[in-house]
Design goal:
Elements (H helix, E strand, L loop, with lengths): L21 E5 L2 E4 L4 E4 L2 H4 L8 H13 L10 H13 L4 E5 L2 H16 L8 E5 L8 H6 L3 H4 L9 E4 L4 H7 L4 E6 L15 H12 L2 E5 L14 H4 L5 E4 L10 E5 L1 H4 L15 H16 L2 H19 L4 E5 L2 E5 L5 H10 L2 E2 L1 E4 L2 E4 L7 H19 L1
Parallel strand pairs: 3-13, 5-6, 5-7, 7-8, 8-9
Antiparallel strand pairs: 1-2, 2-3, 4-10, 9-10, 11-12, 12-15, 14-15
The structure holds pyridoxal-5'-phosphate.
Length: 391
């Protein structure tokens, strides 16, 4: 591991970065600037699902870049059209608005919910979200985020948001009245430390939204596109959202998000209501089409399920007594005390990337292409790191 010394870091200090500089990657392995290899159980925070530098994705990007990089959304492009059709096929006909990030997909969902519900004039503009939830850092998404420490320095936030405890049907029932346009939830809370709600929670949220006339907006930015062993995490719960947000792995690492909505809801937007210069550009769309092809052709949804079981079993073995939770290849270990950073640091020194999602929780979101052998090796390194720290 070598520390980047080639140039001063002139970026704003919003990240406490790890002392390692990566120069290349292949599948679930990253290589630093000294040539050292690491097993990657972070995947660029649940982004590199098809693995690093997938040759088909790289070629799709290069081919499209040689043809056309950008024309704006004033004009039609074939890759964006095909991607919208592809996502519609995967979601029973939902319509897409393409963005450049997860936060922007959430912004779009918030605006769409208010537009659909009639907003302040109709007395229906509130959004209900969950404590601990994470939806991004732009002001609307930050307001939806249920984490006061991230919010407080930037107040005043956007009016009209209410937070309720996650996984609490009674609290949701009390909060969702006729002034609520939408309920925004992660099917599994990622940044909060991989919190899986009780069976029936999403279904109850679905029924409640139905009953009260609010939209169910599911944030599948982290859980979507195979990560949890289903194309979308909501499928596990047997519910369908009205609006869904995707991003992260969608374009294989190029910046791309999408807000999808059932046609009758999407139709609330009129020309001029929402816009983006870059969102859904042909290069990102071509990458995303190839990512979806790879997920399908390499059977990565099923792989996430199978590999997830192996990872979970390994973690249970190594962290006996600690809570191991998650689904598919979105797993976490709750260490019960604030040593997650220390364990992640030791793991890094031993050639493994894991994420300290919270001070006490380690999160593992490896590429869906990670091999069984790499999972075993990762678990071995993590176990050794934990034993050192625990001692
Ligand atoms: N929603 C969820 C569930 C996320 O995990 C994230 C990012 O971690 C976001 C939204 C924000 O996405 P982005 O960082 O692309 O804006």
């Amino acid at each position: 591991m070598s520390v980047a010394t080639s140039a001063a870091d002139m970026t704003m200090a919003t990240y406490r970065r790890w002392p390692v500089e990566f120069v290349s990657g292949r599948r679930a392995v990253l290589v630093d600037d000294s040539g050292r290899e690491y097993i990657d159980c972070v995947a660029g925070i649940a982004v590199a699902s098809v693995g690093h530098a997938h040759p088909r994705v790289a070629s799709a990007i290069a081919d499209q870049a040689h043809r056309l990089i950008h024309v704006s959304n004033l004009y039609v492009t074939e890759p964006q059209n095909r991607l919208a059709q592809r996502l519609a096929d995967l979601t029973g006909g939902m319509r897409s608005f393409f963005t450049n990030s997860g936060a922007e997909a959430i912004e779009c969902a918030i605006k769409l919910a208010r537009r659909w519900a009639g907003g302040r004039e109709a007395g229906r503009h509130k959004l209900v979200a969950a404590d601990g939830g994470f939806h991004g850092r732009t002001l609307g998404a930050l307001t939806a985020t249920g984490q006061p420490v991230k919010q407080r320095p930037f107040e005043p936030l956007v009016p009209g948001f209410v937070h309720v405890p996650y996984d609490d049907v009674a609290a949701l029932r009390a909060a969702v009245d006729e002034s609520v346009a939408g309920v925004v939830l992660e099917p599994i809370q990622g940044e909060a430390g991989v919190i899986v709600p009780s069976e029936g929670y999403l279904l109850a949220a679905r029924e409640l939204c139905e009953e009260r006339g609010a939209l169910l907006v599911l944030d599948e930015v982290q859980t979507g596109l195979g990560r949890t062993g289903d194309w979308f995490a909501f499928q596990f719960d047997g519910v369908e959202p009205d609006v869904m947000c995707l991003a992260k792995s969608l374009a294989g690492g190029l910046p791309m998000g999408a807000c999808l909505a059932k046609p009758g809801i999407a139709g609330a937007f009129e020309p001029g209501d929402h816009a983006t210069t870059f969102g859904g550009g042909p290069v990102q769309a071509a990458a995303a089409l190839t990512v979806l092809d790879v997920i399908e052709e390499e059977g990565l949804v099923e792989r996430a399920r199978v590999a997830g079981r192996r990872l979970e079993a390994g973690l249970r073995d190594v962290f006996g007594g600690k809570e191991v939770r998650g689904r598919g290849l979105m797993m976490a270990v709750d260490l019960g005390r604030d040593v997650a950073h220390d364990v992640a640091e030791r793991a890094l020194q031993q050639g493994l990337l894991v994420n300290d999602a919270t001070p006490s929780v380690l999160r593992l979101t490896p590429p869906l292409v990670i091999s069984g052998g790499q999972i075993d090796e990762a678990v071995g390194i993590l176990g050794a790191a934990w034993r050192k720290v625990a001692a």
